[in-house]
Amino acid sequence: MVFHLRKGVKWHDGEDFTADDVVFTYQVFTDPEVPTPYGDSFGPVRSVTAVDSHTVRVVYEKPYAPALESWGFGMMPRHHLGGKKIDDEEYTRRNIIGTGPYMLKRWVTGQLIELEANPDYFEGRPGMDRYIMRVIPDSATEFLELKTGGIDMMTLEPPQYKLKSGTEFFKRYFRKFRYPSFGFTYVGYNLSHKKFSDVRVRRALGHAIDKKKIIKGVLLGYGTPATGPFPPESWAYNPEVEDPGYDPERAKALLAEAGWKPGTRGLLEKDGEPFTFTLVTNKENQKRSKAAQIIREDLKAVGIDMDIQVLEWQTFINEFINKRRFEAALLGWRLSLDPDIYDIWHSSKTGEREFNFVSYSNAEVDRLLIQGRQSCDFEKRRHIYRRIHQIIAEEQPYTFLFVPDQLPVLHKRFKGVEQAPVGIMYDFVRWRVPADRSTWYQP
């Protein structure tokens, strides 16, 4: 595979973007000393060579279907980072350069990030001179800032979208959008724990949790039940896979088959041990915390006692998920448009900081994941991934909860905004604000 790089592309410090930067980026991401789960994303690469200053040749050991997408992330500047410790704060916070439409102007920890237009951007100067992303942890405060002109855009919580954005004021000043997320929310079970090693138990949990109640109560209807590792928007989604359905009696029967019988304290017991476990999630996502409350009540009804532990994100990820110190976790995935989910589900990806943190292992799924990567035939890949969808749905290493709708709202003074299947931010560089609309409260 040969890449012919666009000429005239500049890094933010004025240096040319060249093939050496592409080779350097590959070397960094595949360096075993660099802590990243993305090293295998490039696939079976044999060599990456800079043929000349603007040509890169990549040779593969075997066919690799996600090849093009694997090269579609931001490159790193060799002249700026070569020989440096790239995870040093100097290069991750203060002295960041890229080739994109906006350049970092300032980063105030816990408050804001301000970007300014790159006048030398290779596709032309972006439509707006600057972009400020403010850090506002509380959704209610963020919504107040939206209404008073402190911000122009936010993603609304379902109650805000349904109950507070239908006023004449909102209709006058804002555009509302709604589209399915390209991902899903789930409860993942640590399969190395004996409670969750029995597939009958995991299937029982799937029947015990009322997904429709969560969608109605937490999302106010702005979402759909998830059935497996692909959302309905994906071409790999298997429409023949049905949701297990809320059926507490079926859940009790499966648990009984697995040896869990009614105990003396109103809980199910096995070998004298009550069925209790802790679900961990992150406090920054209110929808997850609310869903956890519903799940706890649903499980209590079938004789399972679930505790909830809500943690700050960094602690949640670094101390619990990455180190596998959890029994069950409430999380979500945002997926790539290409259905390659090798990093999430292959049995080789269970190490610390890797994405198969539930320790799922299935020989057929492993084989199919490799076949899906190696075939460039669209229909063959569709068949492969639909089979993967079916197997994982049957084995329930996750209870697949819901695919939430995205609910962004944007001030009407922004022009050039078009909704697409991937949302509205895909062409952000082309957004603009007409000179006569610079005042926030103009109709």
Task: Please describe what this structure looks like.
- The structure is a single chain.
- The chain is an alpha+beta fold and 443 residues long.
- Helix content is 30%, strand content 21%.
- The protein contains 15 helices and 19 strands.
- It has helices at 19-29, 67-70, 78-81, 89-94, 139-148, 158-164, 168-173, 199-208, 211-217, 248-257, 286-300, 313-321, 342-345, 363-374, 378-395; strands at residues 2-4, 45-52, 55-60, 102-108, 112-117, 130-134, 153-155, 174-176, 179-180, 183-189, 223-225, 261-262, 268-270, 273-274, 276-282, 305-311, 328-334, 398-406, 408-411.
- Strand 13 (268-270) and strand 14 (273-274) form a beta hairpin.
- Helix 8 runs antiparallel to helix 10 (248-257) and helix 14 packs antiparallel against helix 15.
- The chain is globular and about 75 Å long.
- The chain starts with a strand and ends in a 32-residue tail after the last strand.
Question: Major sheet, described briefly?
Answer: 7 strands, mixed
Our count of helices gives 15
Give the total of beta strands: 19
Q: Share of helix among residues? A: 25-40%
The stretches of 5 or more residues where confidence is low (pLDDT under 50) are none
State the oligomer: single chain
Rg of Cα set: 24 Å
Strand content: 15-25%
CA(first)-CA(last) distance: 51 Å
Helix-strand category? alpha+beta
Q: What sort of overall outline do the alpha carbons produce when their principal axes are compared?
A: globular
- Overall mean pLDDT stands at 93
